[in-house]
Specification:
Layout lengths: L2 H6 L7 E6 L5 H14 L4 E5 L5 H12 L7 H25 L3 E5 L2 H12 L3 H12 L6 E6 L2 H12 L12 H17 L4 E5 L4 H15 L7
Parallel strand pairs: 1-3, 1-4, 2-3, 4-5
Helix pairs in contact: 2-9, 3-4, 4-5, 4-6, 5-6, 5-8
Bound molecules: thymidine-5'-phosphate (TMP).
């Protein structure tokens, strides 16, 4: 083996796409559609979600969404979301990217910044530090921020939930959900290289078309078939 060449050839890396937004923004549907479109192009694509995505992280998801952790306060809650994220990265995301696959994840670190930040007024320094030690180099290449008014999102989430009880975050008041929207929009504005703000008040087909167009423009043109 030519060790000189190996030292200069970067390891193949797939692409990491995340979806973010408040409640009822339609992320799960759009994740499924994008995954199907990428697979139809012959690209190995893994769909996953947070909190969760690996067995240990799914166990933490149950605890987090039950509200059991809330009494510990927003800093501790943020740390447990990050603990789940570390397991998810180590066991699913990083290995998939290392073998050249695309990973499409429903929520990631921006959700901690927006939700735990909005909830607990955690400082930017605290969130920045937590993000750095949690994700390291596993940063998304592309993030879709699905944006819609908080009232509309909550109404949609309520319809989807039916008779089931609201979870820990859906149960927060409307001011919290409005602050979330502001926070996601601010993240998108601050990171235009990575983030695409998507108007999620439109039809599923219109939204999916925008997402596919941005994925082609930003990621597929530089991926060798
Ligand atoms: P979802 O799968 O329905 O989006 O539910 C996940 C919930 O967890 C949602 O209310 C957002 C919340 N959440 C956080 O508060 N912080 C996080 O870091 C993540 C990933 C999710």
């Amino acid at each position: 083996m030519n060790s000189e060449k190996a030292a200069h050839t970067p390891a193949p890396r797939g692409r990491f796409i995340t979806f973010e937004g408040g409640e009822g923004a339609g992320k799960s549907t759009q994740v499924q559609r994008l995954v199907a479109a990428l697979q139809a192009r012959g690209i190995e694509t893994v769909a996953t979600r947070e909190p969760g995505g690996s067995p240990n992280a799914e166990a933490l998801r149950k605890v987090l969404l039950s509200g059991l952790v809330a009494p510990l306060g927003p800093a501790a809650e943020a740390m447990i979301f990050c603990a789940a994220r570390i397991d998810h990265i180590d066991n699913l995301i990083a290995p998939a990217l290392a073998r050249g696959a695309f990973v499409v994840c429903d929520r990631f670190a921006d959700s901690t910044r927006a939700y735990q930040g909005a909830l607990g007024k955690l400082s930017d320094q605290f969130i920045d530090g937590l993000e750095r030690v949690t994700i390291g180099d596993t940063k998304p290449d592309l993030t879709f921020m699905l944006d819609l008014p908080a009232e509309e999102g909550l109404a949609r989430a309520g319809k989807r939930r039916g008779a089931e009880a609201v979870d820990r975050f859906e149960a927060e008041n409307i001011d919290f959900h409005r602050a979330l929207r502001t926070s996601f929009r601010a993240i998108a504005e601050k990171n235009p290289q990575r983030c695409v703000l998507i108007d999620a008040t439109r039809t599923m087909d219109e939204i999916a078309a925008d997402i596919w167009h941005a994925t082609e423009q930003r990621l597929l043109l530089d991926v060798r078939a």
